[in-house]
Amino acid sequence: MRNVQVGASRTVRIGPWRGITGVASVSTYLDQPLDRAAVGEIVGRLQAQGYTKAVTAALTPAEEVTFRANGFEPLRELVLLRRPLQTPVPRAEHRLRRWRRRRTDALLDIDAAAFDEFWRLDDLGLREALNATPHRLLRVAADQPPSGYALSGVARDRGYLQRLAVHPRATGQGLGTSLVLDALRWMRWRGADAAYVNTQHDNTRALTLYERLGFEPEPEGLVILSREL
């Protein structure tokens, strides 16, 4: 993924989507809203580069309007949840450690086991997530190989639980709870006022976990859009 300037000094990240030839991934920055002309410029650039399809990252309702005005259509919908961070967060019960290795194989193995094909990350997608916020924390379960991980980020006063994955062999043991609590404590220490996370409408296990830990659904969710080019 690389940053590309479009419109009036706006930046988007563009690159291959999940390693599929001809399919582009388009990610926006929350603090750089795009107008219709800027999205049209993105479409033109992708066509010139030989892409035949584009898929966006999760978009807010305001962003959705701009992209749909340029021919994009809904592909997947997500629930967006928020948790205030003004009060102390309990400590995690599981032993966790910071992931400092360059290789991501062990994390991608967890991801592949925890998610179906559409939602799982490849190496490029994980590295893109690592670079999505100015501050980040990647923590894993202390076992070898690790049985779960959480990637968190902070931008200004907002915290983001960008990825939570627990291998099926470790589900039902409270590891997901520990990874979320650990992430929330770090976000609060970093100065975030609230934490945000998104998940699929039918991911009952994740929704139950997040709501039990104080997250509440926002009135409007997020959407992933796509367009044939």
Description:
With 229 residues, this protein is α+β, with helices and mostly antiparallel strands. Helix content is 28%, strand content 34%. Strands 1, 2, 3, 4, 5, 6, 7, 8, 9, 10, 11 and 12 form a twelve-stranded mixed sheet that branches. The chain is globular and about 50 Å long. The two termini are 19 Å apart. The model has no long low-confidence stretch (mean pLDDT 92).
Q: Kindly estimate the percentage of residues that lie in beta strands according to DSSP.
A: 25-35%
- How do the helices and strands follow one another from N- to C-terminus? EEEHEHEEHHEEEHEHEE
Cα radius of gyration in angstroms: 18 Å
> What is the count of helical runs?
6
Largest sheet: 12 strands, mixed
- Unreliable segments of 5+ consecutive residues: none
Structural class category:
alpha+beta
Described by the principal axes of the CA atoms, the overall outline is: globular
Separation of the first and last Cα atoms? 19 Å
The number of strands is 12
Q: Average pLDDT across residues?
A: 92
As a percent range, the share of helical residues equals: 25-40%
